[in-house]
Q: What sequence folds into this?
């Protein structure tokens, strides 16, 4: 059976959903801290596809991938290295933690994630300017609507 695809993208959502539903104890523990933007105000998706890989935690805005590895990864160093090389070629920074570190040294893991996030460059605003349609009252004092410079688009198929 072919994997379920979602939203017209070539994404393996069925496998992502399966991994989310069968998370390890370490992944569940870390998720509790990464959810709701609790670390540096950054949003993370879990079991998120990037290219052919499904990453444990991904912040698209900070371009950061967090992998939580079990003991099987000790024997898969070459696979992990090629995976990391691919993700870095996509401009992601990759950090890895062993399951036992997440479970046994949780505060240190969270501190390291916060430290890495502090060194990540801020997200770049969209080139089209679509991210900001209203001027801030405090910035301009007027709060008037900015003209939308982006071309009008019909439906989602035009994106």
A:
């Amino acid at each position: 059976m072919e994997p379920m695809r979602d939203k017209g993208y070539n994404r393996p959502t069925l496998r992502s959903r399966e991994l989310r539903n069968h998370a390890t104890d370490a992944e569940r523990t870390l998720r509790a801290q990464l959810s709701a933007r609790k670390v540096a105000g950054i949003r993370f998706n879990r079991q998120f596809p990037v290219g052919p890989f499904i990453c444990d935690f991904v912040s698209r805005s900070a371009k950061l991938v967090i992998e939580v590895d079990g003991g099987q990864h000790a024997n898969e160093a070459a696979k992990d290295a090629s995976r990391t090389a691919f993700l870095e070629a996509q401009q992601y920074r990759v950090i890895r933690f062993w399951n036992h570190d997440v479970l046994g040294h949780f505060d240190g893991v969270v501190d390291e994630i916060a430290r890495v996030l502090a060194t990540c460059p801020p997200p770049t605003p969209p080139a089209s300017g679509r991210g900001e349609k209203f001027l801030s009252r405090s910035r301009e004092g007027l709060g008037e609507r900015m003209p939308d410079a982006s071309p009008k688009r019909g439906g989602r198929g035009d994106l």
